[in-house]
Amino acid sequence: MNKKLVGFLIAAVLLLAAPLVAQQFGNAWVRIIDISLLYVLLALGLNIVVGYAGLLDLGFIAFYAIGAYLFGLLASPHLWENFAVIKAMFPDGLHTPLFVVMPLAVLVAGFFGVLLGAPTLRLRGDYLAIVTLGFGEIIRVFLNNLDAPVNVTNGPKGISQIEPVRFLGLDLGKSLDLGFVTLPSVTLYYYFFLGLVVLSVVICYRLERSRIGRAWMAIREDEVAAKAMGINTRNMKLLAFGMGATFGGVAGSMFASFQSFISPESFSLHESIMVVAMVVLGGIGHIPGVILGALLLASLPEVLRYVAGPLQEMTGGRLDAAILRQLLIALAMISIMLLRPRGLWPAPEHGKSAPTPIPTPPPPEGGPAKGPDTRDRRAEPRVGEVRRKTP
């Protein structure tokens, strides 16, 4: 049997058994894994923009917020309670099904991704980062203040009572009793998020090896050369922004359903920087590295809660546990980047050593050994030059 197939089967068994083992130590650990899978979706989407196309986007969390608020508005009683028209149209409440909300989240987030990319086509590097950073903050401030004169987002109070995902007749907000084992809600969400991650990995893998992916990488390496080769850099950049934004929209909609509550504070600049750090720390442009970086940085803050507590007690409570936890995260990231500057799992084609020279073949048996070439090349005529023979 193929070794790669055996590896996939072992990985599948471990992924299926992971929540069953984690829930033995409490549902909180399964919840941490669920949030980590959502960050994997975000990191995969940002990897399309940053890793493939080479466009530094610091406002990617805005698409996460757009997807979350779209799901929250369509799957909660907020609009039904604040708008008489919607209440008259849907007397029993606005219960939008998943197969309607998720495609809408994809389309709306993709539209805003193209809307962000259109005015930034001529920007590169730091200037592009500043513009995308401003876009992310504009979306957050917009959501934070859109509660007057018409209450659309409920402002800083956020949207609550968001309905859970209902998929194929299964309510992920309730436990499922299989007879021999009971799967709590967080475990059901784990399997659903895992399916989305697997689908996203397949999409990214196919994109990377397609003509579109090769065009993105050509733009990343040298945009002028890519344009000279006939690549439509404008359309390719817009496609990268739109495609990456769709991943953020899907992750945001699932976050709203999983948390049952969203507010603008969940989509701050800190979250944007963390997603960029996941891509850089894992390995830019390499799918396994991006997944590893997302899992590590998403779970590390929660794991360090159990380290910050004892350290706070050792200092007599003089250090705040939250600040100490952020300090430990920063030290861990700095250490990793010093030891692995290209990321924990960089792409194989990155950082290759120089090609080794081809050794000179040994002389044939019994023939004269070839020594170094001692001819004076300066005395030989150059190409296109005719020299007069001396008598």
List keywords for this structure.
mainly alpha; globular
Structural account:
The protein is mainly alpha-helical and about 400 residues long. It has a domain at about 15-265. It has helices spanning about 5-20, 25-50, 60-75, 80, 85-90, 100-115, 125-145, 185-210, 210-220, 225-230, 235-260, 270-280, 285-305, 305-315, 320-340; strands spanning about 160, 165, 170, 175, 180-185, 260. The longest helix is centred in the middle third of the chain and has 27 residues, at about 235-260. Mean pLDDT is about 85; it is low at about 350-355.
The main pleated sheet reads as: 2 strands, antiparallel
Classification by helices and strands: mainly alpha
Mean pLDDT: 86
Distance between the termini: 77 Å
Low-pLDDT parts are 350-354
> Percentage of helical residues?
55-70%
- Count of helical regions: 15
* String of helices and strands: HHHHHHHEEEEEHHHHEHHHH
How many strands?
A: 6
Side by side, the strands of the main sheet go 1-6
Evaluate the radius of gyration: 27 Å
- Proportion of residues in β-strands: under 5%
Overall morphology? globular
Mind sketching the topology for me?
Elements: H1 3-22, H2 27-52, H3 61-74, H4 78-82, H5 84-89, H6 98-117, H7 125-145, E1 159-160, E2 166-167, E3 170-171, E4 176-177, E5 182-183, H8 185-208, H9 211-221, H10 223-228, H11 233-259, E6 261-262, H12 269-282, H13 287-303, H14 305-314, H15 321-339
Antiparallel strand pairs: 1-6, 2-3, 4-5
Helix pairs in contact: 1-8, 2-8, 2-11, 2-12, 2-13, 3-6, 3-7, 3-11, 6-11, 9-11, 12-13, 14-15
